[in-house]
Amino acid sequence: MSAIREVLPIMVLSEDTMDRQLYRFRGSRWAVFTLVIGLGLFAGSALAHARQAPMYVQVGFAVFGALMLYSSVFSLAADQWLRVDGSNRSITFHKKNIYGRVDWERPGDAFAKIRVFRPSVRGGEAMNWSIILVGRESPYPIELSLGENELGSLHREHALAIARKVGKLAGIEVVEA
User: Fold this and answer.
1) Domain limits of the chain?
2) What distance in Å separates the CA atoms of residue 23 and residue 63, rounded to the nearest whole number?
3) Which fold has domain 11-25+79-176?
């Protein structure tokens, strides 16, 4: 068993019909976002060097810039989607990234619930709502994040509507926490 558990990115609703939904990770958008931040951090490191800032400031900017550039490469190489099929009440998942490939199809009853909640952050609750599809395996059930955008869902009603549609198609209970 791995000591590090991968946190999968949010998949966004990309296709919606009466009996099927498709969610995708839009890696190119995230890659552009992290590329801009990474380049800005490298520019900050160069500026800190030019102004003879302490070495930990220069290195800090450079390290976080490198992490952002790594995230860009990871996101460009990633292909991840989840299909909810109401005709056979199943969920199909595909993930391919720089670490390998995972493909599976499971019946809806392989999932314990769909959690809709507002995450807690320092000082209160987050502005957006999260939707998590929770598997039944133990001790570490799979958790897949869904949303209307890369940040999740901005409104409770939208989050619940997405969760209820997935729950209806796959026969999974929706739990608002």
Assistant:
1) 11-25+79-176, 30-76
2) 32
3) PH-domain like (2.30.29)
Burial status of residue 147 (CB atoms within 10 A of its CB: 0-12, 13-18, 19 or more): buried
Tokens of 6: 């991968």
Distance separating alpha carbons of residues 25 and 51, to the nearest angstrom = 40
Task: Reply yes or no: is the peptide bond before residue 141 cis, omega within 30 of 0.
Answer: no
pTM, 2 dp: 0.80
State whether residue 66 is helix, strand or coil.
helix
The closest alpha carbon to 78, from 59, 102, 107, belongs to: 102
- Give kind and range of the element (H or E) at residue 67: helix 55-77
Round to whole Å and give the CA distance between 44 and 59: 10
At residue 61, the 3 state secondary structure works out as helix
The model's pLDDT over 60-108, given as tens digits with 9 standing for 90+, comes to: 999 999 999 999 998 999 999 999 999 999 999 999 988 889 999 999 9
Q: Are the C-beta atoms of residues 135 and 110 closer than 8 Å to each other?
A: yes
The two three-digit tokens of residue 114, written as one number:
């769909």
